[in-house]
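Action item from last week, closing it out:
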Amino acid sequence: MIIHEYLIGTVTFRNGAQISLNDSSVISASVKRQACSGNQFSIGGVYAAQLTMKCAVSGTNSFRLRGAKIRLFSMYGSESGWTFIGTFWITDAKRIAGDIYQITALDAVSWLDSSSFNDTYIDEDDQRTKVYDSVAKYFESQGLGRTINGWCAALTGVVSSLLERMTGEQNALTWKAYNESVNGMYTNHYALGGYYQTCSRELTFWLSTEFGSGLTDCPRDLFRHLAALAGGFIFADTDGKLTLGQFSMPEYGKAEIQESEIQQDSCEIADYLLQTIVVCARSEIEDGLYNGASSTSITDFSSLTPFRIQADANPFLDGFAAVWCRGTESYHFDDLSPIVEGLYYFHHRFRYAGNKDDVIQTAELRPFSCIAHTEQRFHLGQKIGIHYQGSYYESEITAATWNFRGGWQLSCAGADSRAMADALRASRADKALTEARNRCMTLEKKL
């Protein structure tokens, strides 16, 4: 299929000067977005979209291009208006020849890696001014409970303010609230029915570094903890604002790909679905007293492969346990079952708060990958239907790469844990981290 596509954009330098881009100046361009890391399906992804582009930019050099901002718009021949591709900041610009550069740029999520957070406070013991050593300590000192969306908005505001002081970049980050009127409730915004007197109890989280989790000067780590509790991912939408993503969001509808639109020999579709069998959550508060777990069995190993979710070493989970289980709130939870219940149904979108009997849409997680030549737009977390070799498959998009006039590379991550190779897949880093945590907990018990 021949794709008719047009492109315009602007490069804005730090001094405010601008250069326009269009079809005649752009040789190639692509943007990769992902919700999961590599081939493994996971929740809690916070990944920056990456733009790679080869283009002609006159009257400048590599030093000026680094740090400049690019805004891109695309329009297919079948469309009547421009679609905003995104805002990106150039991290590398290599001159190829003359005015032609190979550019790499990242979207707003990359700013979440900014460290060097500092703010002052008065030490109560010696009444001297000191500096918070992490953004987590700063928020913990406020002692406020927030919803997951509320925490994301608060963190975004602080990081944006930090960026302005460090780089002069104004309003680099803004937070867009998850649209529940269209998409249903996000995971763990409300407690699901069954455990509680009502089905619409809003879940609020506190931040606790009491046992060392969350002690980082990188805001992305805190967003990752929040995204994991929300059973989804955090990304920069096409309008450049950070927002919470969920799998199978009704907002994006359902994409359909015909076999005629799939590049030859590019399509691979698994003959199995991912099936959640165990969800567990563990808080470090009081020797893990507030554990919670839920499990189910797989009835058909020929078409299902097990998937496990484990929430631990999470400062917001520890804060939840400290307040709602150990603590000070008028309503009391015996353990972390409400969090576990929410994560167990992370791939369901419920219309009403806490009501799991009214499902808008359910995500089917079938690993696949393909290259589609079509004048469609695709989104992370979007449900997709694929017509291929006389069969029809449904899945979710966990990675999408847009190529200018070259179609889309689409995939859903997910490894087959039934394979023997999966038992050997744990990296040395994973094993070292697990052993270190176990040793620390053992030493703590001896003190």
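Closing note: The first helix runs from residue 62 to 65.
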